[in-house]
Design the sequence.
DNA sequence: GTCAATGCAAAATATTTGCATTCGT
DNA sequence: ACGAATGCAAATATTTTGCATTGAC
């Protein structure tokens, strides 16, 4: 997805700030909060003198348009570039996030929605637990 | 679950505030935020003169001990009494929440965790969409 | 009486908004 | 040039914390 073209199509201006917010998310394998992004960009592009409000506004705009998505964590929303739909396994000890996709579950979700006369637009599924390493660390503690 | 006995077992004091926070959640069919609870209790038990900090502290304590659970909504955590595990269908138009449980999905979640060497402790799954009434309203608008 | 729990107010966090200025087209 | 987008600072909203006081046991 070309950001410049996308913005043009929406009648929005292409700006250095929007470009960098998008590319920073694009090039970062992690899920980032608005604050994270703000700090990273401030460090990597000090000449830009970016404002936190711009980060929030841009993230909201990109999210509304489906270019990025987020998971709601205890410390706020964490954003990522929208790829094909996937859900998350989250380690409660080290915070590691693993993405996965499962068609069977998606079908069952649709079935449940149908049974309740809901028309689904979206969903979140987050599985919390301990990753392999943190399970080992747990054992060592004992 | 008897709150008084539970607190005793944990070495915690039984207080009027804790009793009322718990019973208010218990008797309310809705999912309530800390703020919601604070306002309801203030109205229904003005003599108690409850503080918002007590509500937050009590909810955190009850949640840590598994007596209540919450779903993370855009406007904060919404609490409910812990019943047998279930997930949520949420109408994005009117905010209606429908609870459901599906064993097949739970099994698939365990399978996914196993494939990724995670040991699951918990999960959240929220399906967003339009409930029957709001779908009708949508149509009427056009 | 002792220590846990509370209310209050202040602090910390997270996010949004108003507005003058800058920038993209 | 014009309106959209920005940075800044102030405003909001949400949750947490310090502390003196109250209340449970």
Sequence:
């Amino acid at each position: 997805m070309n950001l410049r073209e996308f913005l043009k199509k929406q009648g929005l201006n292409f700006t250095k700030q929007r470009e960098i917010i998008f590319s920073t998310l694009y090039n970062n394998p992690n899920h980032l909060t608005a604050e994270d992004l703000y700090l990273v960009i401030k460090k990597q592009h000090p000449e830009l003198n970016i404002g936190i409000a711009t980060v929030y506004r841009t993230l909201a705009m990109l999210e509304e348009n489906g270019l990025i998505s987020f998971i709601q964590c205890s410390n706020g929303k964490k954003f990522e570039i929208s790829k094909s739909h996937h859900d998350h396994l989250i380690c409660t000890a080290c915070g590691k996030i693993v993405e996965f996709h499962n068609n069977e579950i998606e079908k069952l979700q649709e079935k449940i929605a149908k049974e309740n006369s809901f028309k689904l637009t979206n969903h979140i599924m987050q599985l919390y637990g301990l990753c392999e390493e943190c399970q080992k660390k747990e054992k060592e503690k004992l």
